[in-house]
Specification:
- Its main location: nucleus.
- This is WD40 repeat-like protein.
- InterPro entries: Swd2/WDR82, WD40/YVTN_repeat-like_dom_sf, WD40_PAC1, WD40_repeat_CS, WD40_repeat_dom_sf, WD40_rpt.
- Keywords: Nucleus, Repeat, Transcription, Transcription regulation, Transcription termination, WD repeat.
- By secondary structure, the chain is mostly beta strands.
- The chain has a single domain, classed as Methylamine Dehydrogenase, Chain H (7 Propeller).
- A five-stranded mixed β-sheet has the order 18-19-20-21-25, with no helix packed on it. Strands 1-29-28-27 form a four-stranded antiparallel β-sheet, with no helix packed on it. Strands 2-3-4-5 form a four-stranded antiparallel β-sheet, with no helix packed on it.
- The longest helix has 11 residues.
- The model has no long low-confidence stretch (mean pLDDT about 85).
Length: about 375
């Protein structure tokens, strides 16, 4: 993992802002916001393709094997965010950023919309495809989670919540998690009985935060992801730490530190009093074998944590117990600017990171020149 290097960087992965008119200079809204960013990326099931969504209202398809851009599609009318491949590599789901809050089902093959999923009254901030069938879930700022099926435009389930949610399926598709910000709660539901109460409610409390500031700054959850074996739940946050929870009983197992949080658009901007989501909720993810966690950082580094050995906790949950703090196993450099989206390919030894530019990372096959020289001498 520490040998990963950026093999290809796409410098034009997002169209830049139009230049400000003369006289506006640094006072223009574009200069205040900084450059446009890629806000989401997704690999298809076979790991052959990756799609990105950007603030320039385009989604771009890339081939992982050739390392080339395949096509650019525009969504100027509705905007585009949270692109997700369905189980076909020619179709995606995506959320809208303007006009309305509909989830759209789009064919990449002939650039047509196949279906509209209407119902949300606020921007969709979390969208996940079921790993086993054509079902999917969306979480919105209207404080609801809706369950859908690609074959029907009608919502097949609705959860009303006290605050905006983030959602995730486990690898079996039988369980899903809903994280509720402001309340620091994660609810686990049985997919077949989602209309009943959650079978587990996890409280996310980090007692170490009160040592930094008092009252402690709230944790803002931007994503949830189950490990492949279903034992652990990775809680991605916009601040300077991510968390690992026991998905069976709800213990807080570990705190992952060493990166710079991504809630600010520009690294030099001051932190707000209330924590914010940032412009992407995809800064942290598992490797496919669930041995490592990868995260982006506002300073452009990619941070890796080895989570193959985690403490086992049993008995009643103690929210005052301090979690195990895990420092990075490796820090990778080479991504230009803040790395806001980081995902590992599900099938190939390849990683993608995105911010104002897109980078494909591959293991450096060259190795250490001194070691290679020794090997050659041995052969002689």
């Amino acid at each position: 993992m520490s040998k990963l290097k950026p093999a290809k960087v796409f410098k034009t992965a997002v169209e830049p802002h139009t230049p400000p008119s003369p006289g506006q200079g640094s006072r223009s809204p574009q200069a205040q916001q900084g450059p446009r960013h890629i806000t989401g990326l997704s690999f298809d099931d076979r790991g052959d393709q990756v799609i990105t969504a950007g603030e320039d209202e385009t989604f771009r398809l890339y081939s992982c094997k050739s390392g080339k851009q395949v096509k650019i599609l525009y969504s100027k009318k509705y905007g585009v965010d949270l692109p997700r491949f369905t189980h076909k590599n020619t179709a995606i789901l995506h959320a809208s950023t303007k006009e309305d809050d509909t989830v759209r089902y789009h064919s990449l093959h002939d650039n047509k919309y196949l279906q509209y999923f209407k119902g949300h009254k606020g921007r969709v901030i979390s969208l996940e495809m079921s790993p086993v069938d054509d079902g999917f879930m969306s979480g919105s700022l209207d404080k609801t989670v809706r369950l859908w099926d690609l074959r029907s435009p009608n919502c097949r389930g609705l959860l009303n919540l006290p605050a905006s949610p983030v959602v995730a399926y486990d690898a079996s598709g039988l369980v899903f998690a809903v994280g509720i910000n402001q309340y620091s709660r994660i609810l686990l539901y049985d997919q077949a009985n989602f209309d009943k109460a959650p079978f587990l409610t996890i409280t996310l409390e980090d007692p170490t935060l009160s040592k930094v500031t008092f009252p402690p700054r709230a944790i803002y959850m931007t994503s949830l992801a189950f490990s492949t074996n279903g034992k652990y739940l990775l809680v991605g946050c916009s601040g300077d730490a991510h968390y690992l929870m026991d998905a069976f009983e709800g213990h807080l197992l570990a705190k992952l530190v060493g990166h710079v949080g991504l809630e600010r658009r520009r690294p030099d901007a001051p932190l707000s009093i209330e924590p914010q989501r940032g412009c992407s909720g995809e800064e942290v993810s598992w490797t496919p074998d669930s041995r490592y966690v990868l995260s982006g950082s506002a300073d452009g580094k990619i941070v890796l944590w080895d989570v193959s050995i985690l403490p086992a906790k049993q008995g009643p949950i103690n929210t005052k117990a301090e979690p195990l703090v895990i420092p990075p196993a490796a820090v990778l450099e080479g991504h230009p600017g803040p790395s806001r989206c980081v995902k590992f390919n599900p099938r190939l030894a390849m990683m993608a990171s995105a911010g104002a530019e897109l980078a494909f990372w591959l293991p450096d096959q060259a190795g250490d020149p001194e070691e290679l020289a020794k090997e050659l001498l041995k052969k002689k």
